[in-house]
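WARN retry 2 of 3 for item q-0093 after timeout on previous attempt; input resubmitted unchanged.
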Amino acid sequence: MTMTVQTQRDKLPAVPKRVDPHERRTLLADALMRVAAQRGLTDVSLRHVAAEAGVTAGMVQHYFRTKDEMMVFALGAVRDRVEQRLAVDPAMQDGSSRRRVEALLEQLLPLDEERTLEAHVGLAFQAYAAVKPEIAAELRADTERMRHGLAEWIADAGKVDDPRRAATALLSLVEGLALHVLGQHFTVDEARATLHAHLDLVI
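OK item q-0093 returned
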């Protein structure tokens, strides 16, 4: 009897593994970022992303109907990565306004392999957004959120008269520093030292 029961169990169909759509989209977005860092977004296709992710082009199209839809999701994935790193940064939990500003801005500099990849992708998004209004709107919204948060922390420090203008200057400085580090014009240490020197002036 035991043998018979075991044989019947063996014939039962395997339970299909449940796929988390968000997790799958995130994996594809990661593949997109790697391709974008190498080729730029204008040359990225669903086929390139599929090859990088090791899946079929049909699977990519199952989760993203268009390239632009995939771009918007990937932009959100970069934002999520930054927020996740900040969430575990002690400076964001009990640090001063200065430490919070510093922590946020250093996430935007290519100080390690992960942030270097994100910086390459960020530059590619800026170029792509020039002709894609939907992508441009996402980038503007992200910039405004960061500027608003920075301005609040700068205002708390009470060192400058116009916190919003100071936040704008800091974001512009970091973007320029990131560009020069990626181009190997400045070293990572030079970029960080320049950022800290400017922070001394405003917060």
